[in-house]
Specification:
Order of helices and strands: HHHHHHHHHH
Helix content: over 70%
Number of helices: 10
Radius of gyration: 18 Å
Structural class: mainly alpha
Number of strands: 0
């Protein structure tokens, strides 16, 4: 009979996301609706991440549209969701929309964008993203470097792929 507060819901949703227990997270969302709980922006973003990771992009997009302030976290979640679902062109379109709205991408954004460019073999978009990443002064990250390298190799730009590898400070078996 106790009422849940936003922090409780946030913790429960975060655990569901972390454990990849998306059905449980959706049940928590259903409970929120049944009890008439009004979502704040933070919980809408948590739910957006949950639905995007679960592959339910329709619901994730509805939640994105409900946000009054679309943060970098919400944009990254929806972009990554589309790219992971094989809808790379939609992911790139959302990346461009995010940029038009003045948000500065981060390492998570570029990891998704480079994956999308690699899958679509769109070298020009990949080079543009590389330029934006350089301007944003994104630090070295093994995930981004791997996706960046992969994009160049899959777009048949062997020399730039090797250049990214040679300048990469953090290397692992994947790179």
């Amino acid at each position: 009979g106790l009422e849940f507060n936003p922090a409780t819901y946030a913790l429960l949703l975060q655990e569901c996301i972390f454990r990849k227990e998306y059905k449980k997270g959706k049940r928590i969302h259903a409970h929120m609706i049944v009890v008439g709980f009004v979502l704040n922006e933070y919980l809408k973003t948590k739910l957006l991440i949950l639905y995007a990771k679960s592959g339910d992009l329709r619901t994730a997009h509805i939640l994105l549209d409900m946000l009054l302030e679309k943060s970098l976290v919400s944009w990254n979640a929806i972009i990554a969701g589309y790219v992971q679902k094989g809808l790379e062109d939609v992911g790139l379109s959302l990346y461009n929309k995010m940029r038009q709205r003045g948000l500065i991408p981060d390492q998570y954004t570029f990891a998704s964008v480079f994956r999308a460019c690699a899958s679509l073999a769109t070298l020009e978009h990949g080079k543009q993203a590389h330029g934006v990443m350089t301007k944003c002064q994104i630090g070295q990250n093994v995930v981004v470097s791997s996706a960046h390298m992969d994009m160049y190799f899959k777009c048949s730009d062997i020399s730039d792929g090797h250049r990214v590898f040679d300048t990469s400070q953090n290397r692992n078996a994947i790179t």
